[in-house]
Amino acid sequence: MDTLAAALLAAILTLPAAGSARADKPGAVLSEVAETVVVVREIDRQARTVTIETPNGERETIVVPPEAQNLDQVKPGSKFRMRYLQSVAVYISPTGGQPDAVEDTVVQLAEKGATPGGVAVKVTQVQARVEEIDHAARTVVLTGPEGNRVKVTVDEKVKRFAEIKPGDIVVVRYTEGLALKMIKE
Questions:
Q1: Residue 150: is it exposed, middle or buried by C-beta count within 10 angstroms (0-12/13-18/19+)?
Q2: How would you write 43-77 as a 3-class SS string?
Q3: Which of 13, 82, 87, 112 could make a disulfide contact with 175, Cβ separation 3.0–4.6 Å?
Q4: Are the CB atoms for 106 and 184 separated by under 8 Å?
Q5: pLDDT tens, 73-129?
Q6: Do residues 48 and 63 touch, judged by C-beta distance below 8 A?
Q7: Is 106 helix (H, G, I), strand (E, B) or coil?
Q8: CA–CA dist 119, 8 (Å, integer)
Q9: Cα(9)–Cα(111) distance, rounded to whole angstroms?
């Protein structure tokens, strides 16, 4: 199991159960993984920030956590293999759930003296109540944990949409994972 997968699994397992997805309820999962090589352009060791440049020329500044012990090995021109994961899972919770939201982050960093790199995974889970539903227009009005209401259009790819009804609890789990490892030259 690669480091990103291990950190992702750890982050998901630390979230409180909001009811498990059931095979007899509608749901969908969408995932995307991208991998690229980025180049370090600037380092501010005092502020613990590193500015990287992507292959298409975009620059992004990353805050390096205090726990990262190998910043001294990173120099302008250093290359890092970067892997990014984004996943959204949506399903109907078993009966009896209430709107709520939880978030957890797991960070794993290279040991002192090892090749600089690390993994960060953030998982956010939100439960919202279905207030209104228009099956013909494929729209749903949801109430979130703070009482906020939002109307969303449901994609045609979501199977068994006709089974969703007012009072159901929709669970959305959004996962972002970022893995960086310096390429030794």
A1: exposed
A2: EECCCCEEEEECCCCCEEEEECCCCCCCHHHCCCC
A3: 87
A4: no
A5: 999 999 999 999 988 887 777 656 778 888 898 889 999 999 999 999 999 888 888
A6: yes
A7: strand
A8: 9
A9: 21
